[in-house]
Amino acid sequence: MKTFFDHINASQNSPFFIEEGKKYSYKHIELRIIERSKSLRHQGIKKGHLIAFQRSSPIDFFIDLFALWKLDAIAVPFSPKAPLEEIKKWHKEIPFSFLIQKEKVLKLSTLTSTFGHEGPCLVILTSGSSGQPKGVVLEQKNLYYSALGTNQFYSLGNHDRWGLTLPPHHIGGLMIGLRCLIAGASVVIKHKSQNLTEFINTEKPTFLSLVPHQLKSIINSKLDHSLKAILVGGAQVSNSLMKDAKRQRLPLSPTYGLSEMASQVTAQKPRDFLEKKDIYHLGSPLPYRNLKIGSKGKVILEGPTSFLGYIINKELTPSEKKWISQDLGELTKTGNLIIKGRVDNIFISGGENINPVEIEEALIEHQDIEEVHVVPVPHSKFEKVPFAFYKSKKKLTKEELSQFLKDKIHPFKKPKYYFPNDFSYQGIKPQKSELKKKALAIIEKENSA
User: Fold this and answer.
1) Is residue 426 predicted with pLDDT exceeding 60?
2) Among 50-64, 130-144, 221-235, 237-251, which is the least confidently predicted range?
3) What is the DSSP code (8-state) at residue 259?
4) Predicted local distance difference test score (pLDDT) of residue 312
5) What letter would DSSP give residue 319?
6) Three-state secondary-structure class, residue 67
């Protein structure tokens, strides 16, 4: 297995990053990584240190990431919007030694990693559905084989341009940089002031990674594109959204992935999406990933992209070789994956099981709804009931939404509460645990009014 630095050396004069028309070559980025690693070493960062860092510039993010890896440190990326108080709260769970904020390096402790492994290089933070803070620990080999398998699946080459429209502190955005690095391709950075349609038409990326609400924003847009594939994942992709994308002849690649498997696990070929009738699935496993469905419907995963384990309460809990996820799925006759939600999101209401995904899939079919997330809230009679947060193009009433769902889902599954929300979150999707807190605060406010 080559190192990521071997690939930087192999593509010296090619553009690694393109931002607002300016090109930054692999050689330029390599020199900045060397300079940055020297600076960080002088400030006390050593092999085995867990290092939290925040960067608003994607280029600076990747330079810091590679500089930390050059020092054999373990990177713990945070959203650039994360307040210091939130970072301090995470520090109680994950003992990072330093916090990098722009050029400032704050020393928080003298601890080094006690994992007992040479490989760990990255910790991706997740609160999950339960809200229990934990860090997903990934090794160099996990990231390398994830990127390599994706590149083989899509035939990513050195002339390709992958649009960066996801935050790089999230595994989906971070892996874009690593895939391009291995292929000698370019990362084209979307500027905050550009809308997605403008970015596609102006910058002409050949690959894009989107979440469903981003895809929905370009449906029916006048696109002049050079796209070979649009990966869409991170949340449930509705059948109607897939149908709209196919009608517009967009080379969609619905995909299933998670931090614990270093991003992608399965994907549908863009050509199959455009040419075949059976498109309502998330494809089959990419190279270096293995997937099967367990007896209780849980997705079981293994392969060289599978994570090392979780950090919980400052301790590493190793993962099993065959890791049983909390995702519920089934395989079609042709071996393609369909996700049915998560075990830890299913709740009981009046003695009946409710899967939030079923409600979300029904509501997202509404022509004015752009995004929707359903969470359970306590109820005096039914124990728990669904609370739906939604983002829409215009104001919608509870009566309208309830009527819309009349023939789509069973009456007991209809949300008891509906609340408009802008979903301005730090990652690519909101944390269910945070939405539950918000729902409870809204109900309490209504009851006290």
Assistant:
1) no
2) 130-144
3) G
4) 85
5) P
6) helix
Tens digit of pLDDT for each residue in 70-83?
999 999 999 999 89
Give the pLDDT mean for 221-241. Answer: 91
In this predicted model, which residue has the larger pLDDT, 184 or 111? 184
- What pLDDT sits at residue 62? 98
One-letter amino acid of 420: P
Residue whose pair of structure tokens reads 């994942």 in the numeric block: 233
Confidence band (pLDDT; 50, 70, 90) for 306? very high
**What is the structure's pLDDT at 449?**
64
Distances (CA, A) of 216 to 141, 173, 327: 34, 19, 24
**For 215-368, where are the E strands, in sequence order?**
229-232, 252-258, 263-267, 284-285, 290-293, 298-302, 309-312, 315-318, 323-331, 337-342, 347-349, 352-354
Residue count (the chain): 449
pLDDT at 113 (0 to 100)? 65
Q: pTM higher than 0.70 for the full model? A: yes
The DSSP symbol for 411 reads G
Average pLDDT, the chain: 91
- Classify the C-alpha dihedral 296-301-302-303 as positive or negative: positive
- 284 contacts: CB under 8 Å, gap ≥ 6: 266, 267, 335, 336, 337
Say how far apart CA 129 and CA 376 lie, in whole Å. 11
Domains of the chain: 4-139 (3.40.50.980), 141-287 (3.40.50.12780), 346-448 (3.30.300.30)
Q: In what order do the strands lie in the sheet with 417-420?
A: 369-379, 383-392, 417-420
382 by Cβ neighbours in 10 Å (0-12 / 13-18 / 19+) ranks as: middle
Is residue 46 within 8 A of residue 71, CB to CB? The reply is: yes
Q: Classify strands 369-379 and 229-232 as parallel, antiparallel or unpaired.
A: unpaired
- Residue 15 CA to residue 46 CA, distance in Å, equals 30
d(CA 140, CA 153): 20
**CB neighbour class for 22 (10 Å; exposed up to 12, middle 13-18, buried from 19):** exposed
Identity of the amino acid at 77: P
Q: For 117-126, 194-203, 367-376, which range has the lowest pLDDT when averaged over its residues? A: 117-126
Q: Which residues does 4 contact at the CB level (< 8 Å), separation at least 6?
A: 66, 69, 140, 143, 144, 178, 181, 182
DSSP character string of 326-362: EEEEEE-TTS-EEEEEEGGG-EEETTEEE-HHHHHHH
Q: Structure tokens of 3?
A: 């190192």
